[in-house]
Every structure is written in structure tokens, then in C-alpha cells.
Amino acid sequence: MVSLTLYGGVNEIGGNKILIEDRGSRIFLDFGQSFSLLDDYFVPEVYLTPRERFGLRDYFEFNLVPKLKGLYSKEAIQRTDLPYSEPEFDAVFISHAHFDHVAHLQYLHERIPVYMGEATKMIAESTEITTKNKMLPEGDIRTFRSGRRISVGGLTVTPIHVDHSVPGAYGFIVETSEGAVVYTGDFRLHGPKGVMSREFVEKAKEMEPEALIIEGTRVLPEEKRRNFSEEMVYSESKRIVSETDAFVMTMRYPKDLDRFMTFYRVAKECGRELVVSMKTAHLLIALQKDERLKLPDPRRSSVVRIYGRELRRYEGWMKELMEDAVDCSYVAENQRNVMLELDLWCLPELIDIQPKRGECIHSMSEPFEEDPISQVSDEVFCNWCKHFNLNNHQLHASGHASRGEIFEIIREINAGKILPIHTTGVELFRKEFKIENIEKGRKIEL
Length: 446
Ligand SMILES: [Zn+2]
Prior knowledge:
The protein is an alpha/beta fold. The chain has helices at about 55-60, 75, 100, 120-130, 195-205, 230-240, 255-270, 280-285, 315-320, 330-335, 350-355, 380-385, 405-415, 425-430; strands spanning about 1-10, 15-20, 25-30, 90-95, 115, 140-145, 150, 155-160, 170-175, 180-185, 210-215, 245-250, 275, 305, 340, 360, 390-395, 415-420, 445. A hairpin with a 2-residue loop joins strand 7 (about 150) and strand 8. Zinc ion (ZN) binds near residues 370 and 399.
């Protein structure tokens, strides 16, 4: 008997945790935390959070992670009523480096192997250093590339690259004893590497799968903001930057390096320097190891400069970067010749820079995208722009396929069973298709 159990991502964006069982073999696809997971019981803004020192104790109380024997490390469960046991799962496969797909790896039993793309591992390592967020498990991490078939017990898993708003994203084709199961991860068709997603869909179709687990982030009654293609973000940004002789500020999701490359291109073609955070510089340097990504090295680039914020204390990883960094007075003096990338929590830097006037390209929109810390109310943001005389432009290409594209792909792959995940639009799926009755933790037989 083959079964699928969704322990997260059910009627919510993110938190994907899919268990596939086939006789004695058990694997998880993704191991994330949803952005809304804690909302019913915890309010981080007022410091009401699970007590990390007690491992999973507070999570189990509210059923926020599955209480399964042989899944977690001794440390994660020693303060809970779940008895410790040797590993009873064969592997975890990670689709990409976003928080809502990896965040719970830190609790995993260290002898359960974790498979991820090479870029995903590099991104996670850099993020751990620059944000102090735990991303990777203690144990056995194995990397893959697109198309490699990986056998785990009676299952064979083939990762196929897809295009998403972070480098190194994959969907999976899992061959079971009763046919194939396809999982899309997060993906889009309109991005710069849309052909990779097409390739994934083709391969998935060929397998004539028994089940399709498909994301539905943008399966919504209506979308609040206009979505562009990456190419449109480029051309519109270029128009804005080339028409001004004043300061330009840009904002994007930290791991969205397609957007970084778009702004890099614009800066280069408009004769400006692109000034990036130390965090971004660290990530770009970490990803130099993967030359297929073709990212500029901020230590050598004539276009990229590193912005060294004035801090009371610099951590080890920052010290080296500070040697090449420019400061707020450099940006202030050269405000007509730079594009400054600023993270939301760094907005106070504008007080030191004192832009005379200028343009701001706000290049984010998904309310639940990868980084909860990237969220701030529109009103607060507009107040900052107004105060510093910056015209605000909203320009974003989503990391996710549109509702129409998702529905088209479901028809094309034509799987026996359809399981929407990573979506709040299950009812919209149901209007179009016969979908499985999914419930968190309920086993669905193939
Ligand atoms: Zn994602």
C-alpha cells in the first residue's frame, strides 16, 4: 500500500511536509514551517513565542508539528512526552531554500539523510551565518542535481529543476510500487528560467502519475497587485532609472537573485553602481562556487558595491566585507550615481543618507513570500517614502505560477489524484477539478 499524508501546507501558504509511505519505506518531501502556523497561539511581535529551549514541547501541545516516533533528534524531544526512538524514516527531500520549506529541519533526527540541491545548501549555509536562523540539520546532508535518480528503500526520487524566486529550486517525481507521485514544490513559468519549469511539467506528464501534489499560492479569487514578468520588471525599472538624475532605492526579497540580476543589469546599463547589503554580498560570494548561476562577485565587480552599515559591533563574517565596503556618506555624496538596495529593517539608513529626492522601486508583493521579516504595512512604508521625497513604484514578478497556469498544468499532467498544497484556494481548485479531500495528518491511499 502506498499512502500520502500532508502534515503541513494544507489550506495555508507554506509549511509543506509531505510523507510518502510505500511498504517499509517512508520519506518526507519538504520540512517547512508555515507563516501562519503560530498565529492561533503565538504572537512573536509581543514575544509570545514557543520556548525554543524546550525543543518541540510547545509545538506538540498545539499540534504544530506532527508527533511521530523516530523522526526527531533526542534534543528536540527530550522535554516532551514523545519517547525517543531510532530513525523510522528513510530520508527528507528539500525542494528549495525558502523558510516555509526547510525551517523544521533543525529538529530532525541527525541520522535521517537530507537531500537538497547544491545551491540550496550554499544558500542555507550563508543564511545561517548572516541571520543566525538555523536552517540545516546537524546530520547527513546529501546534494543532488537535476535529473539524478535517487533510490531510497523501495522509492526512487528524481529531482527536476524548476524556476522559482530563489536559485536551485526543484520539483520531485517519486516512483512508488503503485505508480508515480509528482510534487511541484514552488514554481513559475513567467520567470527568466521558465523553460526549466516546462521541462519539469513534460517529465511529469510522461510518467502518467497516480497523484499530483501541486502548489497554489496564487490560486486566489483575485490578486491585489499587478504581477509582471521578470523582463517587464527589468524594462520598467530601466525606464525609471534612466529618466532620473536623482537617488534610486530598490527593495526585493533577500534570496531573490533573479531580481538582483535584474537590478544589476539596470544599474550597469544606466552607469550606476548597485550598492548591496553585507548579507547579499555574503550570499553572492557563497554562490560563486556554482558557476552555472553566473552571479557577479562583489569583491571584484565594477558595478556592485557593498554597503557597510555603521554598527556598534561587527561579527566575524562582516569584518572581511567591511574592508571593501562603502558607507552612508559615500552613498549620500554619490546619490545620483548609485542604486541602493535596502532591506526594510534598514530604512533608518535613509536618515544618514538624506536623499534630496528620488525613486523607490518596491519589488516585493507576495504577502507570504519566503521571508516573514520582509513584511511591513504599506502605510509605514509610504510614510518613509514621502518623508524622503521618494516616488514609490510597485514592480514585482511573482515566484509562483498564476491560477490559469496552475489549472492548465493540472489538465496537462492529468494525474489520477490531485492534491493542492501551499494554498488558501482549495475551493477554487474544487470548482474546476475533482480533488482529494485533504486534511492535515490524514492518510490518502494511492
Ligand atoms: Zn518558495
